[in-house]
Amino acid sequence: xxxxxxxxxxxxxxxxxxxxxxxxxxxxxxGITGAPVVDDTGALVGVLSMTDINRAIVERVDxxxxxxxxxxxFPDKVAEEKEEMREMAVxxxxxxxxxVAAILPKDQKVFSLGPFDSLERGIxxxxxxxxxxxxxxxxxxVIGIVTRQDIILLVAGKSRMG
Length: 162
Hints:
By secondary structure, the chain is of the alpha+beta class. 50% of the residues lie in helices and 16% in strands.
């Protein structure tokens, strides 16, 4: 079976220059956990997942916490917890205001498929590289996406192709 018959054709993409906040809201409103990232020309440059956003937040929180613990003393637990909440708000704002490109893992290898590749090839890539979604690219443009969920639904006979 070809990827073209299994892919979701109405693919959501996010721009690399888009704010994380806007990309996050777009994903949440559509009930999806990730999307291909394209540059201003529409070329695939990465894949953003909710895990990437969460990782960026946790990494920043950990850095801020380490700095606070090394430089500040608090009179009591309540004061310390209040400072932690303030820091969390600052971190959330900083991450959500930066661009999608800024939080994509620098070492992220971008895997994709062509529409005439076999679904088996897609499954193999997903298994070998622990990815949950593969953009489908034709003539340098994202034309669809195949996710683990698409494959599960297809195997169960409940394809949501579209």
